[in-house]
Write a structure and sequence with these properties.
- This protein is mostly helical.
- The chain has one domain: DsbB-like (Bromodomain-like).
- Helices cover 63% and strands 0% of the residues.
- It is elongated and about 50 Å long.
- The two termini are 13 Å apart.
Length: 156
């Protein structure tokens, strides 16, 4: 298999995930909270790593895809934090999500959408977008790690 194909697929999958978030925001008018916006950053990084990996030889390309997998695991952490906030297991560490008073700030920051209120993409399906992101990022990261850690075939 051409080593550029996984890199292109990585960039495309990350762009599709980010595109779905923008579609939900601008077409379906689902307002994201601050944690939702944080969950988008790893996908931007993965797009850049995937595109850069298409330009490099096999070994550096695999290293970049490994970094993309680690970046996605970072998103799993952010999404897991967000899911915990939605379930009420803990408060968000972001003051923008809690409407807390910040020292030196004139007024408390009030979120447009609280981070503890789940946003559902599919009506009547009790899976929030944060939980969807958690599952998708975990699966994506595991697939990338499986590719990167597999023993490469020798080409004659």
């Amino acid at each position: 298999m051409n080593h550029r194909l996984p890199a292109v697929l990585t960039a495309f999958a990350a762009a599709a995930a980010l595109g779905l978030a923008f579609f939900a925001q601008y077409v379906l008018l689902l307002t994201p909270c601050e944690l939702c916006l944080w969950e988008r950053w790893p996908y931007r990084i993965v797009i850049a790593l995937g595109l850069l990996a298409t330009l490099l030889p096999r070994l550096p390309s695999r290293i970049l895809l490994g970094l993309a997998a680690l970046t996605l695991l970072g998103d799993v952490g952010i999404a897991g934090l967000h899911v915990g906030v939605e379930f009420g297991w803990w408060n968000s560490p972001l003051p923008e999500c809690n409407g807390m008073l910040i020292p030196g700030a004139p007024l408390p920051l009030t979120p447009a959408t609280p981070c503890d209120r789940p946003v559902y993409l599919i009506p009547h399906l009790p899976i929030s977008m944060a939980l969807m992101d958690f599952c998708a990022a975990l699966a994506f990261a595991l697939l990338l790690l499986a590719y990167v850690l597999r023993k490469p075939r020798r080409t004659p």
